[in-house]
Sequence to fold (546 residues):
Amino acid sequence: MRRSGRPPHLILRLALTLMASVVVLRAQPTRLDLVIRNARVIDGTGSPWFRSDIGILGDAIVAMARRIDTPATRTVDADNQVVAPGFVDVHVHAFGGVGQPPPVLPIVEVPTADNYVRQGVTTLITGPDGFSPVPLRPALELAEKTGITPNLGAFIGHGSIRTAVFGSVNRAPTASELERMRTLTRDGMRDGALGLSTGLFYVPATFSTTDEIVELAKVAGAMGGIHISHMRDEELGVEASVRETIAIGELGGLPTHVTHHKVIGKASWGKSVDTLRLIDEARQRGVDVTLDVYPYPASSTNISAALMPSWAQEGTRDDILKRLRDPVMRDRIARETVRIILEGRGGGDAHNVMISRCDWNPSLAGQRLDDVAAGRGKSRSVEDAADTAFWLVENGDCGGIYFAIGEEDIQRVLRHPASMVASDGQVVLFGRASPHPRSYGTFVRVLGRYVRDLKVLTLEDAIRKISSYPAQRIELTDRGVLREGMKADLVMFDPATVRDMATFEQPHQYPQGISVVVVNGQVAFENGAMTAARPGRILYGPGRTP
Ligand SMILES: [Zn+2]
Fold:
């Protein structure tokens, strides 16, 4: 019989049978890999919690219903705990901090990223602040080959591109240098970047004009990327910086994002009223601008970047040391460093500066800058603190923590409807140095302190700000919400006991109250311990070419 001669009703019947079997397969797999029972589900959308079982097959959620009876290889009783989407952190230093990437990338050194997974974070987005490996592809491929526990995505960094093309200098790029920067941005997007990150506070990016950034933003935007900015000024000039970040979005034709929004220095406290109004006004006229925040009153970055004026940081390390050796120059830098300690990031007092890490003298980690000065036989004056900061830089620089952010601003930013939560932390080796506690506690601190204790946010809204909203920001359409068909990234916790334990004095402490973390359908954390699973995937951006 010829194909075309088959009676139409037979074809119809065949089609119906096929469709029916597809429906049956979708609705009722004969066996599930994992079923979570008796959960209070907070689905990530902001909707109130509801009671549901969750069925997982492979790496996906395939069933959500009040009762799932399908046999499962494994069943976990949530016993009335909350089950939420795994948290998505859009600002993580997984490829290193400020400056060149270290010889061993943190996510390769600690592929389990325990300090994040134990908070319920299942997706890390790295390459923030304008710093990323250039090119990006080898770093992403190395992470994939290593086998990591959480998912990982990355931005390509403007500062790193600028340095790669013409070094750390205070001038504009030539036409051909700018063309080269455009090419490296395009390459970064082809390597799988989610967009362009900038850190206009840092050298050499601080020597860039807005126009230079817009030129690269256009390239990233045309390839589907977004722009995320550590702004030029988070102190007295914070409003101008928010305007600049908005302008980059408008002129570059792409979504734009203020990362770790804060106002540093008592003289600037309260300015978040104005910065948030700028964001509201921009959103009203159609600019897709969003922001994130970490829930701590202190920031963290290198001593040199934080306490020295940018002009003094230009060039190579030798250039910087030469300036510090010249007595007249050293004096000029010191006057500005004293001002920064008094009015800016120093929080008004050298005691508000804490060393987080010194590779050349690990015993300094955890000490306050005035105490370090005293240890050198100096006084506790601001002038001697500035001199001690230079001594730290001369010996190889250190990381620092700076207590200069007001609680009211933190809460105001947290409450804003366009804000999400991100840590700005690092993938850390347990016990090493004295990192900012945000690396261990950001997400649980929001759930414990800001939801349960201070009632700044509802639990459902807080979950939205750490799951679906950041996922949506980076156009991660298959994660961040608990729903059939989504990837099975989820976290189980007890809202009555969840809390951060990491403090500035003792940061190496895992949180309490998180009981199970699942990444791509595999249990990555349970019974207080990491499992052997390494289910993390690389999440590539829209412009990727294999
Ligand atoms: Zn930053």
Observations:
- Confidence is low (pLDDT under 50) at residues 1-7.
- The longest strand covers residues 32-41.
- The first helix runs from residue 8 to 27.
- The CA atoms of residues 367 and 420 lie 32 Å apart.
